[in-house]
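Example: FadR/GntR family transcriptional regulator.
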Amino acid sequence: MAVTDEAIEKIKGMIVSGALRPGDRLPKESELAAELGLSRNSLREAVRALSLIRILDVRQGDGTYVTSLDPQLLLEALSFVVDFHRDDTVLEFLAVRRILEPAATAMAASRVSEQQLNALSAQLDKLGDNPSVEELVACDLDFHRGIVQSSGNSVLCSLLDGLSGPTTRARIWRGLTQEDAVSRTLHEHRMILAALRDRDAEAARSWATVHIASVEQWLRASL
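Written out as structure tokens, the predicted fold is:
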């Protein structure tokens, strides 16, 4: 194992074991290197790597701290990786969304508040019946993000937020080239919202599946 990898594993072990907790400040570099049996250089490289993926927070002049380890913070690294997707993997991202998002929508059916439902409804009303493709896609992102947040699962929310980026261009392309894409999307949004208002988890799951699958099917046929 490379020395930097060994250093990363040792710091990770301290966090997993509870020796270092969220918000804790790491010991001084010289002390920590001696405690872990590492060179200061390998420790420095490990800290740099762990700060890139939001495990550690290096504060100039103040020291290095363990972050909150909040899922949304940690999964920012996923969003960074996802940005490097190739166009030929968009269908794979849609397939993952089709697995996860209907489940999140079903979870939201029993947890979404009336206030949240009214906000989603107002969002659709504001969009109107004849929005531009760009307005529709922006609303689509916000609409689904609001529903997933209502599921109460921060990990699921962060995962789906990170996965939504690669499919944005495909949704715009569909809106520009498929004749009924805008009206179909608006209808599917209304049906998802109606199922959530009825607290019908299975109907919400089904409409979310239909909604994502329709984009996937169109893209598969267009490639």
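Strands lie at 56-59, 63-66.
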